[in-house]
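The methods section describes the discrete structure representation at length, but only in general terms. An entry of this sort, consisting of the sequence and the corresponding backbone structure tokens, reads as follows:
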Amino acid sequence: MRNSYRLAHNAFKSKATPIYGDIYRMSEVVPRCDVVIVGQILVHLRDPLGALHQASLAAKETLVIVEGIPETPSPDIPVAYFLGGQVSDGWWHLSLPFYHVLLSKFGFSIESVTTKDYIGHRSMPFKLTTIVSRRS
């Protein structure tokens, strides 16, 4: 994964600085940034709320979350449920209303939400949602 990032980083002459480390200590080691991107990691973590809180502390202005977001029975009720052993590569399903509530608690409001179809490993289709939020 790091090699693919480096390839794209060099090919597009990116000025972004990736930082690898303990996401639960992000605000202690990462200087405050204009934009913080949290990409496809939250559902894989033991404590996604703690990780997102750390990301919010590091973001001066914009916090971007990219995740697969499940459909829920009600589009207005925040839902976070533990998957247990049902899925081998994730622990949680977090709904869009859940992100709305949590981001507002961290001082952000959602500016845009987009969902796109992608082709993943072994040509399996999946959807990713990008949430762009700004500090209120």
